[in-house]
Amino acid sequence: MSRKWERMVSKNAKKINKDRSKRGIAPISTDPDRAEVFKGRSIMLALFFVLISVFLLLTLTKTSGDTMYWYTTSAYMVVGLFVYFIRRPYLKVSKTSLSKRGFARELVLGAESINEIVYAPGQVVIHLKGKSPRWVYNRTLNRFDVAAMAGKLKKFAEQNQVAFVDKTV
User: Fold this and answer.
1) pTM of the model
2) pLDDT tens digits for range 16-41
3) I need a labelling partner for 107 at 20 to 30 A (CA). Which of 60, 125, 132, 166 fits?
4) Contact 12, 20 (CB under 8 A)
């Protein structure tokens, strides 16, 4: 299909699905080219904040323990829980681009700036062209579903002529 036809079909499907959802009926179709999002957990950063909070609680006996001390201790605990449950790292795989959460924004990477994708047991590494750092997605540290991610990335690599290396064989 041409791009114009794809856009028209997608636009009409969105409109019909919106109308059907207002009436409480299931949508007629889903967009097969929609981006797939793989979410993980930020265990190390969350653990760091929680350990600071526990450390502050343990050293409370040696201080007077005013109210700001309690606010600081509880704030570290809340930030740790926020990072673990709410601000999760992700990899979004769309038709022609990959994106992930940066420190303050979403980083989008086009297929033309990817050198190769390496799938090893328990991790996926995306090597970028130039001096950009590589993107590493781990099963043990970040709790990503690496096998499903590798399958989608393999399809992405085939569609965009990017080298895909499978080291699990």
Assistant:
1) 0.74
2) 888 888 888 877 766 666 788 999 99
3) 166
4) no
